[in-house]
Write a structure and sequence with these properties.
By secondary structure, the protein is mainly β. It is about 10% helix and about 45% strand.
Length: about 190
């Protein structure tokens, strides 16, 4: 799933099959997924990953209403969320994850039994070692210049602005890689 910002409160995300629309809190965490890639409430999903201004992860998804969702990075439990009456869960971590490549794992628990589990890779950069401006993005798995452009400018076709501003890092606009850091110029 790739995050695309449409305004300060609602985000439009795209999966391979359909659009995902989220309503966000002021701190950037997802309050509710209005339209999701996974409309079946019986299946655990991980729909959104964003970062706080300090670099801590904000995660959200769906599970059966009332389910407990344990979130792990590797074998370490990061935290627990509970699905609300509509099946939406959110977890905002208190502190950043140490730099590195990780596997996030989500376990849906009902009656003290794991009923569903899913995993996804992430990369956490060392934010202390890099100078990230306010208009920068760290590429995550699934990002493309088109999607990043839609997030920042509202139009994918403006990806050429990002490509030109970062041409020393990008050989082919169709090939960007997780962990790359791009400056996002103002329109």
């Amino acid at each position: 799933t790739n995050k695309i910002l449409t305004n300060g409160d609602v985000e439009l995300l795209h999966s391979k099959s359909e659009a995902i629309v989220t309503l966000n809190n002021t701190d950037g965490t997802v309050e509710k997924v209005l339209q999701g890639a996974n409309n079946n409430a019986n299946i655990l999903s991980f729909d959104s990953l964003s970062y706080s201004s300090e670099g801590a992860l904000n995660l959200s998804g769906k599970a059966l209403p009332g389910s407990k969702v344990d979130v792990y990075i590797g074998k370490k439990l990061l935290g627990t969320a509970f699905a609300d009456d509509n099946g939406f869960w959110n977890l905002a971590l208190d502190s950043p994850v140490k730099p590195g490549d990780y596997i996030l794992r989500f376990n849906e628990i009902q009656n003290d039994k794991v009923v569903a589990s899913l995993e996804t890779p992430i990369r956490q950069e060392d934010l202390a070692e890099i100078n990230i401006s306010e208009n920068a993005i760290i590429v995550q798995p699934g990002n493309s210049l088109w999607r990043i452009s839609r997030r920042f400018y509202g139009k994918g076709i403006l990806y050429t602005l990002i490509f030109k501003a970062n041409n020393q890092l990008i050989d082919d606009p169709d090939l960007i890689f997780p962990g790359q850091i791009f400056d996002i110029p103002k329109k």
